Amino acid sequence: MFRARKSPKGRSPRPRNPERTRELLLQAASREVYRSGFRSTGIDTILAATNVTKGALYYHFENKEALGYAIVEEIIATLTRDKWLRPLQEGKEPLDTLIGIVQRTSVRPKDVEGGCPLVNLAQEMSPLDEQFRKRLERIFLDWQESIALALRRGQSQGSVRRDLVPEETAGFLIAMYEGYTLLAKNAQDAKVWNVGIRNIVGWLRSLRAPATASGADRVGSHGVVDVTYQPVRMLGEFASTARPTDPRADGGTDGKAKNDQIRSL
């Protein structure tokens, strides 16, 4: 009879765990896609990071595209759900919840430099792959509907202005939030996001119904809440504050004034 071969150093072989293997592959692929983009991510790089065989990868994912779809559905959708949808479902006052979410935005260098994984993939893959586009669109639509639903609830409670169209307001918030994400990523500067957070929070406060506005909201001269929000100059705080002395600069006709304006953008 043949004796069972013992594993090195007397250890019993580690039992296979398909679910754990799949999760390792998914997480490693997600990190690499976030770092390099989907098209630049190589299968060999994922395998090297996980010490998993190519056969095991293709056992769990039919091809690279299937792995990418899983990243969207299981990683990116979960991130959006945990950051936005769940707090909005559980929060009592929608605007306070939205302000809290925005204020908790990470401005760590690695997060600012990497940008938003949802937008990164949407920019890269939506024009190229319809299956990617549909999956990413579903996340955006769920995100928008979650915000709109919360705003409608706030309107029924009397805490959100009645003149707002919840769906349009939700879409504008997402566009503003992701717009600042892109600006900060392009600038590779957390200061851009800090200004963005202040601007978004100020705008959200302007959405309060007059009777429920807090002391943090601006009040006009007649005791009525002033909902006209004046945004912070996005780059003015860390660009040069010097103004040209030539009076022609106000009219934009002086060449030096034009150059100064370009530098301030």
| Total number of strands | 0
CATH architecture of the largest domain: Orthogonal Bundle
Helical residue percent band: 55-70%
Uncertain spans, ≥5 residues at pLDDT below 50?
1-8, 10-15, 218-228, 230-265
Query: In percent, how much strand structure appears in the residues?
Result: under 5%
Largest sheet: none
CATH class assignment of the largest domain: Mainly Alpha
CATH topology of the largest domain: Tetracycline Repressor, domain 2
Give me the secondary-structure category.
Answer: mainly alpha
Helix count from the secondary structure assignment: 11
- Termini gap: 81 Å
Q: Averaging pLDDT over every residue, what do you get?
A: 82
Q: Summarize the helix and strand pattern as letters.
A: HHHHHHHHHHH
Name of the CATH superfamily of the largest domain = Tetracycline Repressor, domain 2
Shape: elongated
